[in-house]
Amino acid sequence: MGGAITSAGAGAAAQMILELLPEPVILVRGRDGEAPEIAYGNQAAREVFRVELAGAPLGVALRRPEVLEAIEEALSTSTGVEVAFETIGVQPRYWRAFARPLEPVDGQRQLVVVLRDETDARRTERMRADFLANASHELRTPLASLAGFVETLRTHAKDDAQAREKFLGIMAQQATRMARLVDDLLSLSRIELNEHIAPSGKVDLARTVQDVADAIRPLTEERKVSIATRAGPGVGSVTGDRDQLVQVIQNLVDNAVKYTPPGGRVEVALEAASSLEAARAPSRQGVGLSLLSPDAADGQGYVVLRVIDQGPGIARQHLPRLSERFYRVEGQKSGGTGLGLAIVKHVVNRHRGGLMVESAEGEGATFSVYLPLAAAG
Ligand code: ADP
User: Fold this and answer.
1) DSSP 8-state symbol, 208
2) 377/375 Cα distance (integer angstroms)
3) Strand-pair partners of 115
4) Ligand 1 pocket: which of 322, 345, 347, 348 to mutate (most atoms <8 Å of CB)?
């Protein structure tokens, strides 16, 4: 046979291909002056509409009047048409229908209608637009404040040395804040770009924790918060990208120090866990929530990094949203960018690890990150 397709075989093959297409396809027929009917619907169409399609009036499948009208019009004039519409239900979906005329059969006009589900594309588009709007808004606030002070310095405060000093201080703060925001945004986009490529380096977490703790010392001394680090038995190296893991530890420790009152203590602990279940086990009382969890891998051990603070804690309703970009618990003036935990989550995801938060109001917070142990040797 050599793979040749006879013309009878071609018809059957075409039918099979139609059936297998992931997009719903229907064939519409109608005589002038009569309501159009569906002559055929492929498997995807039958799954979407969940009705017997062959022989059914077109309105059974496509209920929206504007869609029906457009298709009826295309059928009666034998022209093509493209129309977007929404279906409502538990989950609203966005569709685009492409109708193209075929040769008439037995005096009946024919139209093939292909439906494309644009829901995911719309959702991604909306997320992108929301993100841009949020990022612009976050930048605009310090920018407006800077512009305001420039104006004041040029006019009212022109000859007031004391006010000038004060305003310049605030301006420097706002500029730093904008720079941090831009750095975090760039960082996040760089991490996302290679999130699908797992890191291959080996990182000694105990050392890395110590390095971060040493680097943050000037800040902790200024805030009178102490940092205690400890590593349990069996804590080995993890598979990772050291620079990115430094960012994770830094962001978590920065938050812990920021929210712990003067005189308080932040603890950074490393523990070995022999399985995913062990890594995910609760470490304290209070509400715990997993913000990210990897796929289970047989026999994979983990190193769990816990950052434990004595701050005000986080109320239960905020926990699920903590790692969203720009999310901040209302009423808390963090002075941060709201991107710290989003960065943590994306780095840990790239490392095929997990992230968990445990907290109770008034009883501090514990953020735990677990990362796959590197193979020995
Ligand atoms: P930010 O730069 O605002 O700190 P993050 O993404 O790091 O952004 O944190 C998001 C929000 O989560 C913070 O604004 C704060 O409201 C809350 N949060 C994070 N860590 C803690 C913590 N250790 N204790 C209490 N609240 C926290």
Assistant:
1) H
2) 7
3) 97
4) 322
Strand 365-372 relative to strand 302-308: parallel, antiparallel, unpaired? antiparallel
Q: What is the CATH number of domain 119-197?
A: 1.10.287.130
How far away, in angstroms, is 328 Cα from ligand 1 center? 6
CA gyration radius for the chain?
30
Cβ neighbours for 212, distance < 8 A, ≥ 6 positions apart: 246, 249, 250, 253
User: Ligand 1: does its nearest atom lie under 6 Å from the Cβ of 357?
Assistant: no
**Range list of β-strands (E), the chain:** 25-30, 37-41, 81-87, 93-105, 108-117, 202-203, 226-231, 238-239, 265-273, 287-292, 302-308, 354-359, 365-372
Q: For a pocket test of ligand 1, which of 266, 341, 344 has the largest count of ligand atoms closer than 8 A to its C-beta?
A: 341
Q: In 10 A of CB 339, how many CB atoms? A: 23
- Tell me if 334 CB under 6 Å of ligand 1: yes
Does residue 41 have its Cβ closer than 6 Å to ligand 1? no
pLDDT band at 6 (very low <50, low <70, confident <90, very high): low
What are 341-360's pLDDT values in tens digits? 999 999 999 999 999 999 98
Query: Cα(49) to centroid of ligand 1, in Å?
Result: 45
pLDDT, tens digit, for every residue of 133-147? Answer: 999 999 999 999 999
The closest-lying atom of ligand 1 relative to the alpha carbon of residue 332 is 16
87 - beta bridge partners? 93
How confident is the model at residue 1, as a pLDDT?
44
CATH assignment of 7-117? Answer: 3.30.450.20
Write out the two tokens for 261: 């009152």
Q: Is the entire prediction scored with pTM above 0.85? A: no
Looking at domain 198-377, does it have CATH number 3.50.50.60?
A: no
Closest atom of ligand 1 to CA, residue 251: 7
CB of 358 closer than 6 angstroms to any ligand 1 atom:
no
In the chain, domain spans:
7-117, 119-197, 198-377
Give the distance (Å) from ligand 1 centre to CA of residue 5.
Answer: 64
60 lines ligand 1 (CB under 6 A): no
